[in-house]
Amino acid sequence: MDEELKENIMGALEQVIDPELGIDIVNIGLVYDVDLDEDGLCTVTMTLTTMGCPLAGILTDQVHAALADIPEVKDTHVDIVWNPPWTKERMSRYAKIALGIR
């Protein structure tokens, strides 16, 4: 996958807002990786802020919806992982400022 397409996918994922924090999943640092195979299957490797997060289904649905408009993406698979665990250090500077975290 070329860098431009990866940027498009990450940009689309910035439309997915974590309902608890009100900030997108990319800036919170929940998205670990995206990959697109030759058949157009986009695998989004991500985590959640807490294990057993009740929003997992909602976020997964929103990821599918966000990537539906990208022509190269024919199907989406969301792989939720717990390793490495999410920490606030994964957040972008923007997210930390928005949430008042130093």
From TrEMBL:
Domain MIP18 family-like: start-end pairs: 6-79
InterPro entries linked: Fe-S_Maturation_MIP18, FSCA_dom_sf, MIP18-like
Gene3D superfamilies tied to this protein: Fe-S cluster assembly (FSCA)
Pfam families linked: FeS_assembly_P (PF01883)
Annotated protein name in UniProt: MIP18 family-like domain-containing protein
Domain of life where this protein originates: Bacteria
